[in-house]
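AAA+ ATPase domain-containing protein
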Amino acid sequence: MTVSIDIGEMAGGARAGMDLEELLATRLLVQGNSGSGKSHLLRRLLEQSAPWVQQAIIDPEGDFVSLAEKYGHVVVDAVGTEKDLQMIAGRVRQHRVSVVLNLEGLDADRQMKAAATFLDGLFDAERDLWYPMLVIVDEAQLFAPAAAGEVTEEARRRSLGAMTNLMCRGRKRGLAGVIATQRLAKLAKNVAAEASNFLMGRTFLDIDMARAADLLGMERRQAEAFRNLERGHFIALGPALSRRPLPVKIGAVETAGRGGSPKLMPLPEQPKAEAKDLIFTPSPGEAVPMRQRIAEPVVSTSDVLDQLSAADREAANAIEPAATLLDYGEREETIGRIIGEILAEPEAAFQPIASLYQDFQVRCRIAKLPGGSPDLQTFREKLSVARAGVEKGDIDDSDWQKAELIASELPEDMRGVYLLLAKAALAKDPCPGNIEIATAYGTRSPGRARWLLSHMEERGFLVCATDLRGNRIVTLTDLGWQTAPGDEAAA
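Structure:
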């Protein structure tokens, strides 16, 4: 069966048709500068072919997610791990569902890795699932660059390999690549060379006009025609379009992208004084730069000496050991309160353990703690938990007792961090950032936090993974709990 879809009109008012079956066999390349109408053309093609063929769109800007409401496309946001995305791609081929891979919000490096993972998942499907599918890649020069850029070599190599597989070997697997690019010179030649159908839009650079003319079999002197094309007008050539270059005006679309060109509008009327205040006055809730923050008060040396002198006087009074269970209960409460007071002071969380223990002993004498102050080992254990900001009463759940039991078997410097991660996992909160973990560990260095997590992972206490947006996910192996994705650079 031959299916011809209407993409617009040719000169003279005749309808411009595209042979869909021929397109699946011969692929399509669309080129045009920004604002020439490439996205409009792709949307027209997608809308017209949606009832006839399965579609997968690699969308770096989130422009095509609007197809979901009218045409039933499933929007796949690039979250989770690469393994998750590859499994989703396999299910897409299995169930023949049209999808939009939304890469909005990712940097270029992660966009390339996510696109490569998804395309590999489509490509590696079992032979029984090789149904026809249009794979549309917008801004293809991002995923198949002609030269190395600012992205990592690993990301470029993986993405270029996936795009090459799509265009060179995808036909036998039912995958028909439709790639759109702003500049042919930026697109890898081995990817562009596999397309047999072309729709060339407005372009201004001589090198791009000359290359477009060569692809369409036009003379060099005719290349100037690409500079004069209006928005939404393209020169079409190929077995699915026309046997000779023909101008085509792309027809209207039924859905709209979320981007579009910005519209001019007058500036708001604003008195000069008020405008200045808006710029230089922080908004409510806005983070204040470090240089504008007022330094926290520092405890003076004289204050410390006075505190030590008072402690020596109090030490003269003998402290009788706790004699009743009530005394022991009050003792634990007092110890917890004293440690909390110590950590509430500026810089206390980062002081050496010896200094903190000396301060703790002084405070215990002042408070006349029943039974005297705990030994250094007990203090270190309680301090590691308090530094993490975890209290037993925070979560009333029997599962929490399992976390405390496992934490008690860990080295003391890991216990607080382990409970911090356990609390986040049990509450399904984002994974704590490096600064928060470093604070719980008693250091300012995010590098030390990363080292500690790696060390705990090597010893089998947890497993760290990174989702496609670069957020960290921690799984506590003994408990089977997993945190939500969290930004490791979060303050």
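The radius of gyration is 32 Å.
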